[in-house]
Amino acid sequence: MSKLDEFALIQFLNHKKQSEELQQKLGVIKGIGDDAAVVQHSPGSQLVMTCDTMVETIHFNPYTMLDEDVGYKALASNLSDIAAMGAVPKHALISLSIPKHYSSSRLKKIYKGLYECANEFEVAIIGGDTSKSPKHLNISVTLTGEVETNQALLRSNAKVNDLLFVTGFLGCSAAGLHYLLEKQERHLTSAKLSLDIQPLVQAHRRPIPQMKAGRLLLESKRCHSLNDISDGLASEAHEISEASKVGILINEDMIPIHPTLRAYCDLVGKSPLDWILYGGEDYHLLGTVSRSNVEYLQSRFQRQGIPFFILGEVIDQKGVHIKDQYGNIKKIQKEGYNHFN
């Protein structure tokens, strides 16, 4: 176990445990290895399914998240997986493991946030499970969605010479987490920084799943591959690279940096690039599009008021590479948030 990272563990537990024939018989179109699974539902549509878990002390603690935010983010992280497939969310099941010291008023706040997210994105909460937990709260969400038959956006269709894009600023969530931890440990405050830190805190506590962007990309029929950024740009770029059997070249000069992120990094002596590449929990969408269709997508996104930034390109050479401001190119590893590293 100690020698396996999160992705290797998934492979270790699941590889060749079921035959392709059985999965095909049961309607599996895309199983383990993408943002969500896709199974046949009806002649005109396919079912998209995902699940995600938030564990107290691992994903949140009382200093980094309010109770309402825990509920909101538990569903939002699942919605991001559905968005990355270009699907429409439908139904959610909630499993809750509750330690003895949690009061009913705290649980009510968690569900307040959960339902805020569900109502905002039109998701029906239809059931789940509750159990006791010996020490910490665990909340797990299983979410279904629907997508037109054979239209789901996958990680595996990037083409050499495609351009790499992202639908928002990265690194803000990791910076927000850093601030919240520093505030607790060293009494760092927004006033001491002379900076409005709320954009970073909000990015961490209440990420906005890119549902509209995902549907726009699917309906445009121009997007070749898509992934959501939960573990950092470096990790997600590697997932597209590996699934599509291509390389990714990120141009450092083209990476957008949120002004508040840049200002905060200057004040605390951190590099924005580190949080952008390896921070995670941004929940924007990372994808590829052919050069001939970039202007079309940029125009569509601009009309909808959704950010759309070009970061680099798809290349022949396998792996993920980054070009710095001096033109030097180096390979970057699949690093980012990983539960077992």
Keyword list:
PurM-like_C_sf, ATP-binding, 60s Ribosomal Protein L30, Chain: A, six-stranded mixed sheet, about 350 residues, seven-stranded mixed sheet, alpha+beta, thiamine biosynthesis
Describe this structure in words.
This protein has 341 residues and is an alpha+beta fold. The protein has 2 domains: 41-148, 60s Ribosomal Protein L30, Chain: A, CATH 3.30.1330.10; 163-332, Alpha-Beta Complex (Phosphoribosyl-aminoimidazole Synthetase, Chain A, domain 2). It is 37% helix and 26% strand. The protein is built from 12 helices and 13 strands. The strands form 2 sheets. Strands 8-10-7-11-9-12-13 form a 7-stranded mixed β-sheet. Strands 1-2-3-6-4-5 form a 6-stranded mixed β-sheet. α4 (104-120) links the parallel β4 (88-98) and β5. α5 crosses α7 (198-205). The longest helix is centred in the N-terminal third of the chain and has 18 residues, at 67-84.
